[in-house]
Design a protein that fits this description.
Layout (H helix, E strand, L loop, with lengths): L2 H22 L5 H15 L4 H24 L1 H8 L7 H10 L4 H7 L7 H27 L1 H24 L5 H6 L10 H4 L3 H11 L10 H17 L9 H12 L5 H20 L8 H5 L3 H6 L1
Helix pairs in contact: 1-2, 3-8, 7-8, 7-12, 7-13, 8-12, 8-14, 12-13, 12-14
Length: 303
Amino acid sequence: MTNFYRKFLSRIIVLSSIIYFIIERRLPAQDIVFLNIILIIYSLDTKNVFSKFLRDWAPVMVFIFCYEFLRGHAYIFHNFMNIQVHKTELLEIEKLIFGNPIPTVIMQRLTQVNPTSLDVLFIIIYSSFFWGAISIGIILWFKSHEFFKVFRNGYLLLCFMGLCTYILYPAYPPWMASQEGYLPILERSAWEKLQMGKFLSLVFDKVGYNPVAPMPSLHAGWAFYSSIMFDLFFKRWWSKLIYLYPLLMGTFIVYSGDHYVVDIIAGFAYAISAVLLLKIKGFIKPSGYLKNADISHSQKMLK
């Protein structure tokens, strides 16, 4: 099948899907929406940039879906291996380091009951846990294909490390410890104030939801890992500013009651471990090599 006919078929599928959902008068599931977006971009791609992009990113997308699915169904492994959920261990460590009340309780006491601009900012920062790292990966893909492959390998390694920990060490996050009476009453912060329950349901309907996977925080881990790799590539004074991103991410997910500070520290440690493993294996070369070796990648993509 030639490229013309493949793109023509993509347009037919998209149009058929739109007509079907108009006739049925119902919203499409998020996986159908995602597929149609891909097909629309593919059908409009005149220089085959998206085809090359999809070839490089397909393994990442497949792995991320498998990661989310297995993370959401980790309870199967817990039941099979008779692993008990750790209810108060992380809380006790948090108290030992930071005292009582813990940072989450203090931060929530300082905020108002009604939605605030802080909560809106939280939603933006929190939701970036997926597209933030992906966006940095896309930048690196355009700048240097070789460095992107290093970034991709480390990112997948970080996901795998986190997944293994979620399976072997299920634990209560602060909001769940609060529901069980181990902490004062906590809000799910912006999730409750801005009524984001429907959004969460939409996201987790397909892949499942694992409420006992706070350690380590890969929200913080992904943000920190992608920031490190961004800085390693550019090595400029302004590239250091990106470290504000993981700091904001860590602050807001502690504020929300989703993670303890020790979860954030663990997420940062996992990110550093992934980068160090890449360096030990020789994937990260001396400063400037990768940046200069594949400098024309973006120009090649657009030709």
